[in-house]
Every structure is written in C-alpha cells, then in structure tokens.
Amino acid sequence: MAGIIVELIISWILLWFICKKHLAVLGFTPTKTRFLNLLFGFLTAAICCAIYYMSFTVFVNNGWTINKVFTGQKMAISSWWTFISVLYEELIFRGALLYIAIQKFGTKAACIISAISFGVYHWFTMGAFGNPVQMIFIFCMTGIWGFMFAMTFAKTKSLYLPIGLHFGWNLISTVVFSQGPLGNQLLIGNGGQKLGGILSLVVFIFQVFVVPIITYWYLKQHALKKQQHADKEQQTANKRIANSGA
After folding, report:
1. Model-level pTM greater than 0.85?
2. CB contact burial 41-52 (16+ within 10 A = b; e otherwise)
3. Are 48 and 180 in contact (CB under 8 A)?
4. Average pLDDT of each block of 10 consecutive residues along the chain (246 residues)?
C-alpha cells in the first residue's frame, strides 16, 4: 500500500509540473457511469477468464480440485493482493504518464507507447526475458491488452474501466485458478494433457482478443449514447432559441 501512496505523490508532482493539473484528471471521482464501467469491465474479464480456463477441461478433460485448506480469509488476502498489484500497474501505465503522453503526442501514439511498455514490462515480471518464443507470445498478449487498457482510459477519461478489466481477469486467473505468483489458491489443476494443434491456437486467440473485442463494442456503444445525448441537448437548446425568438 505504501507503494501506491508513493505512486500517487509522484503522479501529482508530474501532472502539476508538466501539465499544471491535479490527480482529478485521472478520473478518481466516483460517478454512476464510472461505477458501471468498473462493473462491466470486471464481469466481462472475469467471465471470459473463467471460460478460458474451463476450456482446458472441455477440450482435453483436465480437471480442477478444490483446495480444502483455502479459507475465506486467504481468499480475502489474495484478492486484496491482486487488487493492489493491478492498481500499482494501472497507475504506472495508465495513470499520469499516459495522461501526459496523450497531451504531448495524441491519443493513438500515447496508447501505443503505453502498450509497448506494458508488453516489455511483462517480459521481466513473467520471467520470459531471454526466451524469444515466450517473449513474442507474452508481448503480443500483454501488448494488445495494454493497448486496450490505455484506450479505455483515454476514451472514458477515468481509470475505472481499465481497473475493472484488469482486476477481473487477474482475480479469476490468480485466486480462482491458481495461475500466478501466489501458488495454490481456490482451484488446483490436475495436470493432464496440454492443448495442441488448432485447439491451442483457438484458445490462445480467445484469450488475447475476446475481451478487447467486447470492450471495443462497449466503448462504441458508450460513444454512441454520449453523442445521442449531446444531440438531444442541442435540439432542446435550438427549440428554446426558436421559442424565445417567436
């Protein structure tokens, strides 16, 4: 938690001295729309992540065993650790630095820079540096997701949606299916066969693209509703002007 506080302090300093802005530009203030963004992101990523891991059971009959020593307290601690790790990464890659980059280079260029940085960062956190094949796969996956996170911040002007997406996937992957640095959590895989051939490719494509595609659709709908609302307000204003002139 101390690291998050330090990040916030550094973020404020950077925003103030470079852009003369406060932390409010990162969209921390809770609103109904931001809460719905958070909920949508969390549920979308969590459901897709669960489908991804359960596909191994469907396709190659790999099972999962409930960890009998995994208590509610451990789940709470693991979930909190996961949330903090997500918040830590979001403040680095989708926080003040991305906001500043958007102001300096434009949205598209800034999001690409953020995505590349996010991909390279995971070479080290996932221990893939030095293994070219793993580096390519990890860079593609985390880079695409990093671009998605960055665009959701740019489009919504808030961290709520990227945090929801990021936390939803990481929580299910790490705490439910035990795929992470915390070791055995709620479900423990029984091992067995690995996916191969076309199935492996299909599952990989699902893992990489399904959440970004759904999020793209959501952002398009969000932009459409925003435009319709703006058009309605403009029509109302025009009617008022016309009536006052009459």
Report:
1. yes
2. bbebbbbbbbeb
3. no
4. 89 94 93 95 97 83 87 96 96 95 96 96 89 91 96 96 97 94 90 72 90 95 80 72 65
